Amino acid sequence: MHVDMDAFFASVEQLDNPEWRGKPVIVGGSVESRGVVAAASYEARKFGVHSAMSMWSAKLRCPNAVFTHGRMDRYEEISAKIKKIFLNFTPVVEPISIDEAFLDITGSQRLLGSPLEIAKKIKIDINKETGLVASVGIAPTKFVAKLASDLEKPNGLVIICEDEVTERLAPLSVGKLWGVGKKFEKALSKLGIHTIADARLLPLDYLEQRFGSAGSQLYYLARGVDSRKVEGDVKTKSVSNESTFSEDITDIEEIRKTLMYLSDKVARRLRKGKIVGRVVTLKVKYDDFKVVTRRKTLESPVAISKTIFEIAFQLLLDKTDAGDLPVRLIGVGVSNLMPEDVARQHQLFWQEEIDVAEIIEETTDLICEKMGEGSIQRGIFISDKR
Which CATH architecture has domain 165-221? Predict the structure, then answer.
């Protein structure tokens, strides 16, 4: 089963702001800067607005929409409630984003009924608990289940049985297949391949020779073949945050401040999840859209803002052209994660400086939690202007 919340961010905003219901709502960054659309309500989608397009373009297409910034804390709060609902039906839940997940309900049918009955119950429970609507797809494989959940949005419920897969997939655009982006779809179009049925006409050897592993994946997915299992209790692989500047900049001091801000956000997320990581990664996108990533592996795992920032900033100075070339975007991430208590068990001695830093940052976490974001901030963010 694949459960996908319909226009999640925008739906939450309409839920919390009743006066916005029935109106086009667009969630994303600033319209005046380089913000992008994170989500658009179905009312906004009628104007051609979709996620990942620029807010400026969205404004042109739908000038009378309600434009609002996202509230990730609120979305995460509702997402957690939805996951608890999933766990009432099966322990095998694989979240793939904040608003969608795969569920393996193979072992649930004896107690809870048929797949259709389980899907209806999940949809009802989500609506009762959150006031939101979900679309559900049920199929023999993950790929087909995800495709099914998208067929009758919003508030859809589609079941594709094993003997129906070939027929149901055949007329759909080849772009519906995982891994077929715009460039791949264009290349297939030149070969006369427009639908999934068309894709089945190409032999496996030809696809592999021409497109490599992507061709092999195309061959099998076009036939509904997907051997991947639903992976319950999937562990987070990395935690990261990034920021796009309103203008391309070469000012190292401004980049430094942004790195500190991002490092704080990453570290706070790590501490909230009680996890630490051993690899710090820096991401830089230049004004020509070239992206470089640099990383460093640490001897001891960390979740301290100061440490993450110092490593990221040193990588910036030593391993990138930031300052010489204009920078469009900067990002910081931590990976190779493990539970905090496990990390402590592996370290017999902790440096006193790290203990002090932990106390300081845990204290600021408590202050921000009680008094709100921005109630306490680092001196680096205080303007010199009087």
Answer: Orthogonal Bundle (1.10)
Phi-psi region for residue 232, left (φ > 0), alpha (ψ -120 to 50) or beta?
beta
100 in catalytic set: yes
What is the CATH number assigned to the segment(s) 7-71? 3.40.1170.60
Q: How far apart are CA 288 and CA 226, in angstroms?
A: 38
Pick the catalytic residue from 100, 117, 167, 231. 100
CB 184 within 8 A of CB 214: yes
**Cα separation, 50 vs 379, whole angstroms:** 39
Residues 81/74, Cβ–Cβ less than 8 Å: no
Q: Which CATH number fits domain 238-373+377-381: 3.30.1490.100, 3.30.420.40, 1.10.1040.10, 3.40.50.1370?
A: 3.30.1490.100
Question: In the beta sheet, which residues pair with residue 112?
Answer: none
What is the pLDDT tens value at each position of the chain, 386 positions in all? Answer: 999 999 999 999 999 999 999 999 999 887 776 678 889 999 999 999 998 888 899 999 999 999 998 888 899 899 999 999 999 999 999 888 889 999 999 988 888 999 999 999 999 999 999 999 999 999 999 999 999 999 999 999 999 999 999 999 999 999 999 888 888 899 999 999 999 999 999 999 999 998 888 899 999 999 999 988 998 765 667 899 998 888 889 999 999 999 998 998 899 888 888 888 999 999 999 988 888 999 999 988 888 888 999 999 999 999 999 889 999 999 999 998 887 765 554 443 334 344 566 666 666 766 666 665 555 666 665 554 43
Q: Delimit the domains of the chain by residue range.
A: 7-71, 165-221, 238-373+377-381
Q: pTM for the full model?
A: 0.64
User: Using omega within 30 degrees of 0 as the cis cutoff, is the peptide bond preceding 154 cis?
Assistant: yes
